[in-house]
Amino acid sequence: MKRFLTVAAAMLAASFALTAQEKGDFTVGGSLGISGGSNSVSSRYEGTTTTSDYKSPTTFNIAPSFSYFVIDNLEVSAGLDYSMSTSYDETNKDNTYTTNIALFTLGANYYIPIADKLYYTPGISFGFGGGSEIEKTDGTKYTVKRPFDFAFSMDFGKFEYKPMDCLGITANIFNLAVCYSSVYTGVEGLKTSTTDFSVSISAIRFGVKYYF
Predict the structure, then answer these.
(1) Count of structural domains, the chain
(2) pTM of the predicted model as reported, rounded to 2 decimal places
(3) Which residues of 59-84 are buried (b: 16+ CB within 10 A; e: fewer)?
(4) Which of 91-95, 101-105, 182-186 has the lowest mean pLDDT?
């Protein structure tokens, strides 16, 4: 039995070594996504803090990226992340919000082999950027600027399948994100700050990566 366990451990280690993502690998690629979820938003306006719950039925996302394996199985990446989302206020569904945000992102993912050519790749990322928001409240439409957005995301449901050495197909099905935004209201130069916590449990985000 002891000999069997030793052989099994050696085979497992060899399998890991053969399937590892090696230090020095570069990748270029991108992802497309459609997701839905719920948000809890805290806004500060003229010294007053308010909290509202929103439903986000649709978010479209496109994210080209470049990455490098600094050590075996540890990938760091940089890229752009553009998203367009539509949401509505749970307390008044006639109040709708459409946002467009572009972020420069930095991230890291760790590759854990779970089957032949299949990896579990949890990771984190940070994003900086800005955009705009179209708000419809009580029948009146407003367009406001978002000069600064900061986002932190944790990807707990990300996987990658490599049908060949130079190609990876990714899927992200679950993530948590915390976002901070500053928003100019356009009313006498007033500005609000918003903290947005989102849980994307119904996300569908697929990507393709080329290794070289």
Answers:
(1) 1
(2) 0.73
(3) bebebebebebeeebebebebbbebe
(4) 182-186
